[in-house]
Structures are given as structure tokens and as C-alpha cells.
Amino acid sequence: PPLPVDFVVMIDISASMRLDSKLVYVKATIEYLLSKLETRHRFSLIVFNHDVTPLTHLLPMTDTNKSHILELLHDIQASGSTNISEALFQGVQHLESRPITEASRMSAVMLFTDGLSNRGLSSRATLEAISKLSLP
Prior knowledge:
Elements lengths: L4 E8 L9 H15 L5 E7 L3 E3 L4 E2 L2 H13 L8 H13 L9 E7 L10 H9 L5
Parallel strand pairs: 1-2, 1-5
Antiparallel strand pairs: 2-3, 2-4
């Protein structure tokens, strides 16, 4: 059987994501992903603009938890500016904070953004900082 995977999903909810239905497409993509996940997988949802807000910790993908995440997803509205670097750091932190017995689980960090960051570290500084982290 396929390996269990821990998904940390970060969604840019800055004002620019309202343009061209970007946020609508992101939500549809995540809905599709959720429909394919099984109980052995876990999922964490983080939204960000100028602030970073974890909406869930890593949850097993039971029907109840999927429904909860879908409710959260549908309530998301876009506003504010964009701090991609802080979102990435917090997303990685979700994985690093797992108990040592879970650290070997396969991990996927997914960042949904239009890339128009106007807060936090620059692209180059972000990449340099992330390269120094011990990603699981």
C-alpha cells in the first residue's frame, strides 16, 4: 500500500488572491486533494496574508476531519498583504514539531500563492533560510 503522508498546506489569502479567481481555484484544488486522501494520511491547513494562521494541526483524514477542513476552507476570505516566508517557516515547524516516532513519515509541504510577496524575507533570503532548516 502507498505510504502514509503528512500534508502541510499553506494558502495565500492576501487581497491579490481575489483577482482572476485565484483563491477559488486553490480551494477547488484542495477539495480535490482531500477527496483522494485516506485515513492513514494527515493534513494540516495554514492560511496567510501579512499574518500566518494555522487553522488545524495534523489531522488524520477521517470523514469527520475532512468535513471540518472543508468548512474552514469555504469560510476563507482574501484580504491584506503577503508574507510567504513566515508561512513557509510555520509550515515546516508543523512538521518539525511531530514526535520523534512520527518524524520518519513522508511529508509534503504545499504552498498555494500567486507569488506576490510584499512582507517578510525576499525570495533569495527565504531560500537561504529554508535551506538551513532540517526538513523532514
